[in-house]
Amino acid sequence: MTEELVPPAGDDIEEPPHAEPAGYAPSVAERFALYQRAGGIITPVLTAVFAFAMGGVVVAATGHNPFLTYKAIFNGTGLNWFFHVGNHHIDIPFTNHHVWFPWNTAADIADPHYSVAANSLAQTLLYATTLVLTGLSVAFAFRCGLFNIGGQGQYLAGAISGVYVGSRFVGMGGSGHILLAIVLASLAGAFWGAIAGFLKATVGAHEVITTIMLNWIVIWVGQYLFGIGGPLQNHVDKTVPKSDPVAENAHLSVWWGNPHLQGLHIGFFIAVAGLIVFWLVLNRTTLGYEIRAVGFNPDAARSRATTSSRWQSPARSRVSPAASTCSAMRSGSTCSTSRSRTSASSESQSRCSGGTRPSASRCRQCCSAP
Predict the structure, then answer these.
(1) Are the CB atoms for 120 and 78 separated by under 8 Å?
(2) Is the pLDDT reported for residue 238 higher than 80?
(3) How does strand 85-91 pair with strand 98-103?
(4) 3-state helix, strand, coil in the chain (%, to 5)
């Protein structure tokens, strides 16, 4: 005979303790999400401030004034141009019309109203175009968990291909010639970067080692191709190790500065478009989600049917065109030669991140296994 359970009186019912609002601690995921949102701005700013502070310490240690040094850098990059406000006009690119503008945009040294600050800013943006596109080749691969140290090699692979096309197919039309040079340079960089991705995905070769080796391989290939007696050496002066000049119709249109003195060309807008595409692909597409998932945690991505090795080589080949494209746009007139996780730890990680959650002692045991 079983005894009937009688519930206690109302006053005797114990309620679960309520957490005090003041004692609430955010979870790890919440703190990580907050850092993700704020770190995109705060981290680069703090890094730049710290770098300038350390540089100032080094300059001061040598007995020089760091403030004068940074002022010279500020003026040399053309940033003081924004403080030279007046009554000027700006020419609308590729037309004969102009409109009022508060800053002097005369970056052409032949212009009677020539501004040194405007020319310095144009040159800064020209170099920024190269750095942005080459940086994308590193950033995209990094989001997939890869360290692309081969940006230099991919840049040179694209430069060699771009200069070859630009100096050889002189009979082509301007737009077609430029497009062909950029596309083939991008494919050359993609191929060079895909080598490291293929080795990573198939045999597990670390991308840092392979990309550094590939950098030196393409450097010495360029030395051979454009060196004295090389197959791509110029046909005019065989004593100079450089390529033939790029055809005039294969140059990108310059919209700020002197076209004959390396003015700022439309490749700047290509770099800006590349930044936008980079953000959209990573944050607004399924492809970007899978790439970021593999970069955050390959084991978790594998359990969600996202094969990490599937994205190693494609991610490398997708980002390498960024470095090689900018090399095609920065090739100029000639190209000269110049010296320019172990299996055991992976196995232990997979044991700790399996379908069933192991105990804390078991996780510590397997993760600390040699």
Answers:
(1) yes
(2) yes
(3) antiparallel
(4) 65, 5, 30
